[in-house]
Amino acid sequence: EARHYIEKAREFASGKSEFAIEVARLSVAELVIRQDEENFNELAKMAEAVQDDIDRAAQAEKDDASRRVRDLRMRLNGTLSQIECAAVLAGSQVFTAAQAKKHVDEAFSLAQGLCKETNLSEEDRFIAKCNEVQDANYRVMWAAFFDFDTLENLAESARKKATRLEGFDRENESIGHDAAVTNAGYRERFRLMGWYRELLKGRCVDRWNPCEEELLTDERVEFWARALIGKYLGAFEAAHGNWQVAKKRFDLGEKLLAKSTKGVLGVIHATICAEVFRSLRKSPDREIARYADEMRQKAVGLLESESVLTLGKADWLAWLKNPGIGQFPGLKYWY
After folding, report:
1. 197/205 Cα distance (integer angstroms)
2. Residue range 125-173, pLDDT digits in tens
């Protein structure tokens, strides 16, 4: 529905130089909405078209360095970095990890520059700081996929930037504190994902703490991010033989997505169920082993649905239907 209204607005504004910024902003918004579609060839073409729209906006502004233009370039680079990471993991030849790193760094640099401006209103300064913190998180994301040795340092740097949000208040509401908590959900998801990937590679993982567990039940964190945090924490607990605790973490996460049976949320739901099965299937507790197989069946049902599309569907189904044969596909997935 959002895409429909974006397209209508673009039709109205297209070709009118006075609306060039608005057209570019709509183009970025559409790319953000479509970034999880996994059609990487089409997304690459879309990104080129968005870049053209931003260039036209810069011409209309008669200033390539205007705040509005730099803000659009920041958003494009941040979105591209996520698309490129997913494409590389999926085995696409359209993008590279180096390209993703370039766009991560460019988004962060632009966000920092926008934060340093001195003539901002309190609200604009808060938004600029939120954007900087978000782009700092994307650096954590890239490290989780491609440079694990830098993960903890980047996560700590992002954490320090997030604490600077704490001082923003509005109408007796601690919007800064709420924003910092919401941000922590994204940052820790990326960080835990990096450790989860190390676990799948055979590494012993013991890097989790009560703070991360608290995020599981904090409604200021996006529900799907909380579900993924539950997935990672459950996998860590299971690897240490803490079967009951692992089941509790998994159950919390999976139930947050109970109604998610379509699109990217359906894929995330299915892969969480698959991880439950991978982690718990060898539990000596019969009840937990039975729960693991129920999750396996749920994952198969979700992935066999026509409303759940992912490039790795065949790999996931093959492993789930023949567990123990072939490699678990988790390292090819970005959630």
Report:
1. 10
2. 889 999 999 999 999 999 999 999 999 999 999 999 988 887 676 655 6
Cβ(163)–Cβ(180) below 8 Å = yes
By the 8 A CB rule, do 72 and 25 touch?
yes
Please state the separation of Cα 300 from the chain's center in Å: 23
Residue with tokens 């049902």: 301
Would you call 173 helix, strand, or coil by DSSP? strand
The tokens 């009560």 sit on which residue? 210
Question: Is the separation of the CB atoms in 152 and 190 below 8 Å?
Answer: no
**Residue 119: other Cβ atoms inside 10 A:** 7
DSSP calls for 315-332:
HHHHHHHSTTSS--GGGG
How many Å apart are CA 117 and CA 4, to the nearest integer?
A: 35
Residue listed under structure tokens 């109205």: 12
Residue for token digits 């579609």? Answer: 37
How distant is the alpha carbon of residue 26 from its chain centre? 21
Q: Which backbone phi and psi does 102 adopt, to 5 degrees?
A: -60, -45
Asked whether 132 and 187 are in contact (CB, 8 A), the reply is: no
Measured at the alpha carbon of residue 77, what is the angle toward residues 71 and 82, in degrees to the nearest 5?
130
Q: Could you write out the DSSP letters of every residue in 41-96? A: HHHHHHHHHHHHHHHHHHHHHT-TT-HHHHHHHHHHHHHHHHHHHHHHHTT-SS--
- The secondary structure of the chain in percent helix, strand, coil, rounded to multiples of 5, reads 75, 0, 25
Q: pLDDT value at position 210? A: 62
Residue 104 has pLDDT above 60, yes or no: yes
Q: Which of the two residues, 12 and 294, has the higher pLDDT score?
A: 294
For residue 250, give every residue at least 6 positions away whose Cβ sits within 8 Å of its Cβ, in sequence order, or none. 230, 231, 234, 272, 275, 276, 279, 280, 295
Question: How far, CA to CA in Å, does 177 sit from each of 181, 218, 226?
Answer: 6, 13, 18
Please say whether the beta carbons of 213 and 176 come within 8 A. no
Would you say 116 and 108 are in contact if contact means Cβ atoms under 8 Å apart?
A: no
